[in-house]
């Protein structure tokens, strides 16, 4: 089982346990980003987290965004990079750029 | 992400079926490709329609094992190639295997330890690891190693190692390693030659097994082996 598969299993387990779950997926990276496209992180409304989308520098911001996607049901595409002030704020000073797609785990097809 | 997609992806992974998972980054609409019989795949679309183009692009990316963002009909899609997890089949439930098996699990491998000697292949020696107690050749026939598979023989017993190696060499396994000194390996190669295995096939065997890190203890040898397997998987294996 590869790690992104493992994270999806954890997300499924959390959902079955009645948690509200969001899934974050690395879609693109440039430069020295440590996690490859397809790397995943699962986050619950109650604050549980599994997996990672960076070396640990943007997980906090991604978890915050996950909370918003859980609340609104809307997906978000987040960009972090050295040219982005937000990235410095969250500590992505390693010189990389990274895009992360955040979406809520939903029972039905979106309308 | 939809729950039914998540379960379908899980089922594909369990069946070792490669699939592409395509997500439209504007709104999260997603498809599992290719599987036109599955309810969540796009309907039969003309090849030049957006979904037809998506299916073609997804098939090409899956064939190349690539994951990334592509633009289709002016919209960004994230296409993830989901290929089967790598597997590691360890022949010989010996001391080295007790460290190697959990190390391989932590590297993302599905691990099976094979040893017909039940005192060795005992669950309490390998907590959480899949064990088989049939003969190595029969076990490999049943497990059907593919090009995402590493096979390691550790028993030091030709009765167990040789049939396993012969089956391993008949497969597309990306890594085949055999424990034993240069002298042991030379004797092994003579036996394999007598069994009709070509020199070219024999050259696929990494032996003495593992990276040269001066390993002495069983856990150190396990570390050198997993290092060599990772190098082989990432295309960085320099064979001695």
UniProtKB/TrEMBL annotation, chain A:
Give the domain of life.
Bacteria
Domain XdhC- CoxI intervals: 14-81
Instruction: Quote the InterPro entries the UniProt record gives.
Output: MoCofactor_Util/Proc (IPR052698), XdhC_CoxI (IPR003777)
Specify the protein name: XdhC family protein
UniProtKB/TrEMBL annotation, chain B:
* Natural source organism: Acidiphilium acidophilum (Thiobacillus acidophilus)
Q: Which Pfam families match?
A: XdhC_C (PF13478)
Q: Which domain of life is it from?
A: Bacteria
Q: Where is the XdhC Rossmann domain?
A: 89-229
Q: Which InterPro entries match?
A: MoCofactor_Util/Proc, XdhC_Rossmann_dom
Q: Which Gene3D superfamilies match?
A: NAD(P)-binding Rossmann-like Domain (3.40.50.720)
What protein am I looking at? XdhC family protein
């Amino acid at each position: 089982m590869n790690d992104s598969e493992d994270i999806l299993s954890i997300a499924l387990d959390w959902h079955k346990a009645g948690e509200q779950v969001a899934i974050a997926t690395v879609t693109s990276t440039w430069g020295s980003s440590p996690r490859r496209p397809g790397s995943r992180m699962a986050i619950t409304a109650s604050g549980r987290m599994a997996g990672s989308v960076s070396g640990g520098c943007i997980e906090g911001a991604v978890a915050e965004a996950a909370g918003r996607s859980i609340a609104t049901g809307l997906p978000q595409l987040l960009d972090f990079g050295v040219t982005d002030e937000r990235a410095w704020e969250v500590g992505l000073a390693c010189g990389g750029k990274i895009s992360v797609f955040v979406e809520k785990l939903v029972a039905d097809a979106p309308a | 992400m939809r729950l039914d997609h998540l379960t379908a992806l899980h089922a594909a992974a369990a069946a070792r079926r490669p699939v592409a998972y395509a997500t439209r980054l504007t709104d999260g609409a997603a498809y599992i490709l290719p599987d036109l019989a599955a309810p969540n795949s796009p309907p039969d679309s003309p090849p030049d329609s957006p979904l037809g183009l998506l299916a073609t692009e997804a098939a090409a990316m899956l064939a190349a094992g690539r994951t990334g963002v592509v633009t289709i009909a002016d919209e960004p899609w994230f296409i993830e190639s989901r290929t089967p997890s790598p597997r590691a089949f360890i022949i010989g439930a010996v001391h080295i295997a007790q460290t190697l098996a959990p190390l391989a699990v932590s590297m993302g491998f599905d691990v099976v330890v094979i040893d017909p000697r039940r005192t060795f292949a005992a669950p309490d020696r390998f907590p959480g690891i899949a064990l088989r107690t049939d003969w190595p050749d029969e076990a490999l026939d049943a497990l059907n190693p593919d090009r995402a598979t590493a096979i390691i023989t550790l028993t030091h017993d030709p009765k167990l190692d040789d049939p396993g190696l012969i089956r391993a060499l008949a497969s597309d396994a990306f890594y085949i390693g055999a424990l034993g000194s240069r002298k042991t390996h030379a004797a092994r190669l003579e036996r394999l030659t007598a069994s009709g295995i070509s020199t070219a096939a024999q050259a696929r065997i990494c032996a003495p097994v593992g990276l040269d890190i001066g390993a002495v203890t069983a856990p150190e040898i396990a570390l050198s082996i997993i290092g060599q397997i990772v190098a082989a998987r990432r295309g960085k294996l320099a064979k001695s």
